[in-house]
Amino acid sequence: MGRGKIEIKKIENTTNRNVTFCKRRNGLMKKAFELSVLCDAEVAVIVFNNRGKLYEYSSKECSLHKTIQRYRKTTIDSSDRGAITEVNTRNWEEEVAKLRQDIELLDITNKNLVGERIENMNQKQLKNLEHKIDKAFSKVRKRKEEVMCEKIALGRRNEDMLKQENDEIRSWIMERECYQRTNMLLSQPEYNALPAYASQNFVHGNLITTANHFARQEQTTLQLG
């Protein structure tokens, strides 16, 4: 037969209540131990009986005091996070309102700079607006002059580069024409018809000079005789 269901209410009999307390307390401690081991959880159990006697259990790797401190810190941090979130929300709302005002002011200023919505401006405001426009115009003119100078400098650099490239191309063309003229000269029939001198038929100039010298000496001797 299965176990019957027990009605959950206070046990009036003192003896039965004490026996049930001991059994249930031991079962609770056992379940807490199994939970800490199987799930690697940090578990702490505090039980007081009806007479005020304390029964406690904590995980093996931590003490009950550390677990209580961790619990308090967690609950305090949670409440602080709620307060911080509320403060941050309020600050963001104020920042958004301020940014909207700045955007509206900038929009009015931009329209004033192009000559719109100036009907309700007094003399002082119009004077300040005129000063801002003059200052902006001076900056625009200065930047325009700088851009023109940059374009002129860039044009000069491009002109120098083009001139250098033209000189290089002209030099290459002249070299090519000279090479072609040389090839044409070498390919003419008159150049090919010139006789080739053999090494055995070539008489050195020094030998010819020496032979002429001896011939002149012989002729002088004969004349003296």
From TrEMBL:
- Domain MADS-box: from-to ranges: 1-61
Principal location listed in the UniProt entry: nucleus
A Pfam family cross-referenced in the UniProt record is SRF-TF
Q: Which GO terms describe its cellular component?
A: nucleus
Q: Where in the cell is it found?
A: Nucleus
Q: Can you tell which superkingdom this protein's organism belongs to? A: Eukaryota
The UniProt GO MF terms for this protein read: DNA-binding transcription factor activity; protein dimerization activity; RNA polymerase II transcription regulatory region sequence-specific DNA binding
Question: Where is coiled-coil annotated?
Answer: 89-146
InterPro entries cross-referenced by the UniProt entry:
MADS-box/MEF2_TF, MEF2-like_N, TF_Kbox, TF_MADSbox, TF_MADSbox_sf
Q: What is this protein called?
A: MADS-box protein 2
Look up and give the organism this protein is from. Cunninghamia lanceolata (China fir)
Upper classification of the source organism reads: Eukaryota, Viridiplantae, Streptophyta, Embryophyta, Tracheophyta
